[in-house]
Structure formats: C-alpha cells, structure tokens
Amino acid sequence: MLDSSSEVVARSPTWVHLRKVGAAGRHPSDLFSGGDEKEEEAPGVEAAGVAAGAPGSGAMASLSGKGEAGVAATRAARWQWAVLAAVALLMLKTIHDSTALLEPATRNTFLFEVFLYYNPLVTVAYMVALWGVNLWAFAHSRVSYPKVFNIDPASHLTQHDLWKIAAWLGVAVLSSAAAFLYCFTHGAPRAAAAQPMLLYAALPLVLALPFDVLYAPSRFFFLTTLGRMLLPLQPISFPDFFVADVLTSMSKVLSDLERATCRMLNGQVASLLWLGPDDVCGGHAMAIPCVLALPYACRFFQCCRQYSDTREKNCLLNALKYATAFPVILFSGIKYRVPLEEWRGFWKPLWIVAAVVNSSYSFYWDIARDWDLTAFSPAACHGRHPLLRANLYYPHKWVYYWAMVTDGVLRASWTYKLSAHLRHNHLTVFFFSALEITRRFQWIFFRVETEWCRMLLKAEQRDSALNLQALAGGGRDEEAEQLLPREQSKDRV
C-alpha cells in the first residue's frame, strides 16, 4: 500500500507522463511534447480497421502504396540530380570555350570580374550544403534540433531539400557565369552585363515570394528571423542570435555582395571602369568595413537586449566579444587613409594586437560558453570526460577534441575575414572564407547540442519541482521554487 505522499506523486500529470515515456522506451525529448496523444491514436485506427472488416488488408495496401510512392520519388530525385549534373557539365564546357576566346591581355581581368560577381553565391551554396549535413547529423543523433529552434519539422526544410537548393543555386551560378562569358566573347557586352544583374535580382524575389510555394514556411521563418536580427525590439530567441552568429562568419560574403551590387548600380559590369582601387566601387571604399562590421553590430545589440531582459552579466561579456571585432575592421580600413610609414609604425601594430585579442576571446567563448566544455575550468582534467562535460550526445569523444583544436586553428582566418587591406590575393581570401564557413559548420554541431542539453536540464528541473510540490500537497514550496528554471519561477510569481 502506497502512503498518501506517494499516491500524490503517482497521480500527478508529470509523473504519469514520465512513466508513459519510460514504458514506451521513448526519447527524453518527449518531455517537451504531448507525444502521448499520438500513441493513443493507434488503437483507434486499428479498431476502425477491424470494424471495417479488413484488419490486415488495409494496412498492407497502405504499406504497398507508400512503397510505390517512395520508389517513384527516388526515381524522380535521381533524374533530377542527373539533369542538374548534365547542365552543370554543359555550363563548365561553355565557360572553358568562352575563356579560350578572350584576348590574353584582358583574360585575367575579366576572369577576375566573373569571380567577383559569382564567388559570394558559390560560398552561400556551400554554406547551405553544409547546413544540410548538420541536419543529417542531427537526424542520426539524440539532438532534437526542431525543439531547439522551436519549429515543426514537417513544414520545414530537410537535409535533402537543402542539398537540392544548394545544387540548384550552384547550377544557376554556373549558367549565369557561362552566359556572361559567352555574350562578352561574342560581341554582346550589354547582354553580358545583364546576366549577373538578372541573377542578383531573381534570388531576393524568390526568397520573398508571397505564395505558398518553394518552401514557403522556411522562407518566411528565415525572413522573419532576419527582421528580428536587424531590429531586436523583442526578446532574443535562439534562432535570432544563431542566424546572426552564422552571418558573422559570412561577413566577407556580405562585403563581396555589396561590391558586386555597387558595380551593377553604377553601370560598371563587363567594363574596366571599376578597375581603379579608389573608385567608388573599388577595393578601398569605406563601405567595405561598414558591411564587414554589420553582423557583429547586430550580435552586439542582441547581447545588449538580452542583458536588458535578463540582467545576466554573461550577456555583457558576450557583447564585449563582438565589440573586439570593430577595432580589427577599423584599423584595417585605416591603411588606405594614412601614409604607408604611419600605417607600418603605428596602426599596423594596433591592428595585430586587436586581431589577437579578438581571436583569443572568440576561441575561449566558443569552448567555454557556446559549447559548455570544461577545457578552461579548474575541473578540466577531472570527471569521466577530461576537458569536456558530463553529458555528451555524440557517440565519439574524439570529435570534441578535434573540434577544439581545429576551432583554435581556424580562428586564424580572422586575418582575411575582417581585414580589407589583405584582399589583393582574391583566391587566398576565397580559400580562407571557405575555411571560416567550415569552422562555423563545425561550431553548429556543438552549439545546438549545448542548447539541447540546457533545455533537457531545465525540463528535468521543472519536473522535479512539480513533483516536490505534489509531495507537499500542491501548495507553494520554497525548495520546489528554487528548482524551477528562472523563467518558470517568474511566471509563478
């Protein structure tokens, strides 16, 4: 016979829910969802089948139909990938043949112009493809990214959708570049100039299309998140600062997009008018450092907004981290505004110090705050996982150590990512931009995992507090209130 307090706990909704979760062998993420209702639907469906007089045939027919639909979808996907590959090969052949027709004196110049217009979009396609890899890994792990981002996975992009989008974008870039070179080498410079302009105009139009087509829920979610990022007028959510963090790694891409757009608006496409570095759209324009600083400014104000809402000092420390990027960008841009001797004797040492501070601070924050690893804590070598944390949701510990080492090494890409005066070698800059995006791709795995760990911990604390309140007879209990997460405690006051 249970005593009265045990009966109260056993009958409490939270305790019943946890027993159902354990009995069904389900994942701890069910603490966040009403998964019991779905489990109760199955008997009703089966009973309906029995009442219809076909307890087995309906299920078999359904499975057969789903199997045929799956085979058809697989075939369609394969044909789609084959067509994309064929078009890509054709465009590469066109680019090769058109390049051979360029005069040797102008070949490198116009190949650089092609690179200028299309390398930002190639980098975007690369980031989209890597995000698809992130989703694939989350789907095969115990990390529930839909709950972290508070989205419905049924109405948002899957990894296959993202890879498809990346492929379509890549083919669109190749097609536009091929048309650009073909038109220019066949005596149609105005038609050549229209190619990148059409592509740059089409992409935002597709993204903002106000119809329920082309992944509308994901497009609207992304645009809404961008709006909240630019104007943090409401409490900051995880997707808000997550997108802003990703954009800090794509600041070079944003800067290149601004340069390309500037040349299009000033009629400098397929011409040599932009060649001078001091031109309004040249490499020394003040707009470059301004665009480089934009994602960091957004993150800085987000941290200030979070501090205003929570009064947590960590928010100010995080804001300081993003503020350390501003001197790096500023001192780099000053090079073209002062004599060379003054730059070497005064500003360059300041730039180096600012860059080292920004890189070191950012690396520490990645490890200790964003990933919650213990590498910088006194207890680093104690516990089951040295330098790591108690709860690890990825099966191989070596990936955590690999991530820490490579994050520190790849943080050196700040030199090329934030410094306008190091842009004379464009292929090198493109390479380091790709490395920075790869580092961010790696960072995403552990940042989302950390957020998932924090959500589970809050859920456990909430349920423990509710159980203590049930033991106390349903009244307010001080010990239970202390166990509730901060936002839960505020709601109960």
TrEMBL record:
Parts forming coiled coils: none
Localization per record: Membrane
Keywords in alphabetical order: Membrane, Transmembrane, Transmembrane helix
Recorded superkingdom: Eukaryota
Gene Ontology CC entries for this record: membrane; trans-Golgi network
InterPro entries: EXS_C (IPR004342)
Entries under Pfam families matching the protein: EXS
Sequence ranges assigned to domain EXS in this UniProt record: 279-480
UniProt topology in membrane: Multi-pass membrane protein
Bilayer-crossing regions: 116-139, 165-185, 197-216
Transmembrane recorded as keyword: yes
Protein name, as recorded: Predicted small molecule transporter
Lineage, top ranks: Eukaryota, Viridiplantae, Streptophyta, Klebsormidiophyceae, Klebsormidiales
